[in-house]
Design goal:
9 strands; alpha/beta; 15 helices
Length: 387
């Protein structure tokens, strides 16, 4: 198993569309036949490099990869585990066009269903799982993006939707009838990542912030017990977000995973649950202290107090966003016509990265240099909050 420190600061994801919506324009040009596959790939690579360099230059300790997507990260995960319905496989299209066929439909074949990603404005494509689905590990995208970042001198942490959330959000009769098969596919992916030098992998399990049955909690425990037993693997960071983890927290603490992410913005009760969880047995707690789900600045001093409380409970704590920054605009500096009073209260993705870095340093060195909080934003402005 790879062994390395997690770092003091990270984010769970970053906007992939580009500061000027470059990805949207390139994908639409490809669909219209105005851009070929190579041109689309070049645009995508440039956007990925820009994100990694931005996070590196901000001095973020731990940088995610495999968060880029041409369309949807659930669709990317479906491809990574071989969950491509036969109606698309038999079309004989290229991998890229098969991917887009799943997203948009083609000829008489309907697309995968589209539905809301929890309580956000984002929509994801619903995987289709049945007894005939032949799970097959395809870590190519994650490996390519990891290698691209390494070529820039940047070490990253590949991100995938976790197996339990993937099945809970998929379309099928019994979500966990195929759990063992799917977990073995994830085990193969982890082994391939480790062989490429990956030290940490992030597996997202946001479905477990909802109330879950004992059987669903047991499925989570089984999945990560098995993945933790993989002999040659990266260290595993299980990220949860959009609420309180509940009974899934002790289940994860019982597994060999090395790090657990908790949303302390939408799920402040996570702090109480963590305090009552007993010995954390050397696990890293990734504290989601900066809201990744809205556009407002963080009260850094209050967040630092929460972070210090977590630090009193765990051997190692890292500061993070509460969820991926996918849900907020890219950079406030591009907004040049805003009311100055409003602007002073805003933080987009780039600014939230700076907040995470500041909090990480405060956790290590103390809170003296943290700026005082801004007054709360007026209710009239908050009507347009991305929540």
């Amino acid at each position: 198993m790879s062994s390395t420190a997690f770092g003091q600061s990270t984010v769970l994801g970053y906007p992939r569309i580009g500061a000027n919506r470059e990805l949207k324009k390139a994908v639409e040009a490809y669909w219209a036949g105005r851009l070929d596959a190579a041109g689309l790939a070049n645009t995508a690579a440039a956007l990925r490099a820009e994100v990694w360099q931005t996070l590196h230059d901000a001095r973020l300790d731990a940088i995610p990869s495999n968060t880029f997507s041409y369309y949807d990260h659930m669709l990317d995960t479906a491809v990574a585990v071989g969950a491509v319905p036969s109606r698309f496989r038999r079309l004989g299209l290229s991998d890229l066009d098969t991917y887009f066929a799943m997203a948009r439909g083609v000829d008489a074949e309907p697309a995968l269903e589209l539905t809301k990603w929890f309580a956000t404005n984002y929509h994801y494509l619903v995987p289709e799982i049945d007894p005939d689905t032949a799970f097959t590990a395809d870590p190519g995208k994650a490996l390519r993006e990891y290698a691209e970042a390494r070529a820039l001198g940047i070490t990253t942490r590949p991100v995938l939707v976790g197996p339990a959330t993937f099945l809970l959000l998929a379309k099928g009769t019994d979500p966990f009838a195929r759990l063992d098969d799917l977990v073995e596919t994830y085990a193969e992916i982890l082994t391939a990542l480790a062989r490429a030098g990956v030290a940490w992998v992030q597996l997202d399990e946001p479905a477990y912030v909802a109330d879950r049955s004992p059987a669903e909690i047991d499925a989570l425990r089984r999945a990560y017990t098995r993945l933790g037993e993989v002999e040659h693997r990266p260290r595993i960071f299980v990220a949860t977000y959009f609420g309180e983890l509940g009974d899934a927290l002790p289940a994860l603490l019982d597994t060999p995973v090395e790090a657990i992410g908790l949303d302390l913005v939408a799920g402040p009760g996570n702090l109480r649950r963590l305090a009552g969880a007993g010995p954390l047995r050397g696990k890293t707690i990734v504290a989601g202290l900066v809201d990744g789900h809205n556009i407002w600045r963080t009260d850094l001093r209050a967040a630092a107090v929460t972070g210090a409380t977590v630090a009193g409970l765990a051997d190692h704590v890292a500061v993070s966003t509460s969820c991926s920054l996918l849900h907020v605009p890219v950079d406030l500096t591009a907004e040049t016509t805003l009311d100055p009073d409003l602007r002073a209260r805003l933080a987009f993705a780039r600014q939230k990265v700076d907040e995470v870095v500041l909090l990480g340093r405060a956790l290590r060195d103390g809170t003296a240099d943290l700026p005082a909080p801004r007054p709360a934003a007026p209710a009239a402005w908050r009507r347009d909050d991305v929540r």
